Amino acid sequence: MSDKQKFLKVAINVPIDQLFDYLPNGEPFSIGQYVTIPFGRRKLIGVIYGISLHSHIHPSKLKSVIKVDPEVIFDTQMLKLLTFVSEYYHYPIGQTIMSVVPSRLKNNLNQLRQYELIYQATEKLTKEFINQLPARQLRIRKVAEAILISDMRQTDVMKLVSNWSDCVHKLEIYGCLKSKIYEPKEEVSKVEIPSLNDEQKAVINAIKNKKGYQASLIFGITGSGKTEVYMQLIEQILKESNAQALILVPEINLTPQLENRFRTRFPTKKLVSLHSHLTDIERLDNWRKAKSGEARIIIGTRLAIFTPMPFIKIIIIDEEHDMSFKQQDGLRYHARDVAMVRAKNSNIPIVLGTATPSLESWHNATRLDNKYNFLKLSFRAVKEASLPKIQTILVNDKTKNGISRALVDAINDRLKRKEQSLIFINRRGFAPTLFCSSCSWTAECKRCSSKLVVHQKTNRLKCHHCGHDQNIINQCPICASMGLRPLGSGTQKVEEALNKLFPNASILRVDKDTTRTKKSLTLLHDRMNNREIDILVGTQMLAKGHDFPFLTLVGILDADNALYSPDYRAPEKLFSQLMQVSGRAGRSNIAGEVLIQTVFPHNPVFEGVKKHNYEIFAQTLLQEREQMGLPPFSFTAILRVESKQLKYCEQFINDAAKYAESLSNKVVIYDPVRPSIERLKGYERFQLFIQANARKDLQNLLKQWTAYLRQYHLANRVKWSIDVDPLEF
Ligand SMILES: [Zn+2]
Ligand SMILES: [Zn+2]
Predict the structure, then answer these.
(1) Which ligand neighbours the alpha carbon of 482 most closely?
(2) Are residues 226 and 324 both part of a single domain?
(3) For 601, which of 122, 373, 378, 522 is 20 to 30 Å away at the CA?
């Protein structure tokens, strides 16, 4: 008798939440491998999710897979995690699996090596040889010239030219190249390891003395030496052979400085980074190094939580409160929350660190049952550095250029002392809107319900939501008045005002318009450290992770905006942002000063920031949340719907609300509302907020609800999505 018929349960990248049955094609197969399959008239890539002896479909009606890729991409642990993620965030399993792999793997275009080659020149490769190559063989010449100077790793050749493999192949045929497997040299760290203060030692001992899964929250003020604690923890854990460590940081924090700090500390430990600034090839390469166990330390942003790491022994999440850990489209997961599940599944410690914990983590760490280990770092690690002095300055409409006298005086003091100042305004462009002083018309985007931002220098009006871009107009389209003027201020206008106030100072603006690459940020650091710059004007880009030793003054211009926000998380976000910006002042031995301009100097956010006291602020906010029944005391989700046609949007959301109400009386279904940007990129938008006291009730409802919505007759006419534990409204 032959073996029993087996069926492959394949996960495919399609918006249908089910597995698809296929027959094996004779090639050996196992769970977690890629397969090429026929799907309708197309050929698609899928993943073998399961192998079964049963199928609801008769074998004669099933198709066979076309090809099985020999490499196992997902181990069972990873598939278990992804199954949880798919179910928790109500996102189809195939799309969930496919959205976490590097894009090269997604399209199966890789066919990449399991090892890396290094290319060396043979005696045949000479200057004369290169000179006689036909001029049109530009790329080959380029590769040959580079290899003539020094041996080259495959990854470096890839970065040098497109179609690199052809070039290498030709040169091999000419007999100019030989290759061997690249083996990195083991380097020895020469860095002197700083000694820790008692608090830091206590934190490390508390974490390392417990075995297995445990979550710890390190609540440490800016400058208290959290990174040093992470590094020493990792050092101790990596002493185990093969152990791997995963560190997640917000995208904006993964600066070259941070990466270098880890690299110089762990040169022998093979560190790789995973973030959006890598090329597809680099990303896949680093991913593979993590998967093979070759890389021992992986430092990455949100998506890195799904990196396959067979020997993972610890997960660290720096700045755990940061909103960028939550994905805002497609698979809307929260990397911190997924990390918790991964740590539990792998039975390893997870460490969260921040100066301003999210209220969720604060609640978990301080509540009676001690869900998290609560660890404090309350001293600055560098003894000379004291906390910056934070003050509010009362401003009003008459404040000239939006910059108060007190701030001007403070900047002048810094200029005299050859110290640096940072002026922070979280809005780029010249002015947030163009306004007609005769009829009050304002310039709005045609595709979004938002104002167009004035960019004076380039003479453009831009929509910061959809990228719409047009010439500035001089005449009002409604009343034909020529009295159009920019209203409010952004970074460009502040820069202009500062240039007038301090004509001899060197002023630099740093925002998305001036600073697009990591390299320009590195350059900025050099110029700041050489004191070539006196005043920096910038957005949130400058708020985090940058240490400038001669910067002693921070001025914050538009903090009040957040106080008008309808988002109940706004005070929490503002507090952490203010703390982070303040942390830029006086990091070395010069005391720092922070001046916050506001109309509401006695707002609890500012009172808390002035005292550097997050604890009291967090407790107060938590009490408020408890009284109002908001997270973390309840569980929420949002249904978002958009369509070019308002009527489909309305009908869909109203019917969805009605159906949800019929499903459970334990979940509160709010009225459908329009989000603050009602129309975006030409799409009308609606959303529906739902809330429950128990996570289980919310999840039960979401399961039935999404199943219903997927086959609802208008589902093809609108774009809709479910956001579980949303952070934005
Ligand atoms: Zn007008
Ligand atoms: Zn727009």
Answers:
(1) 1
(2) yes
(3) 378
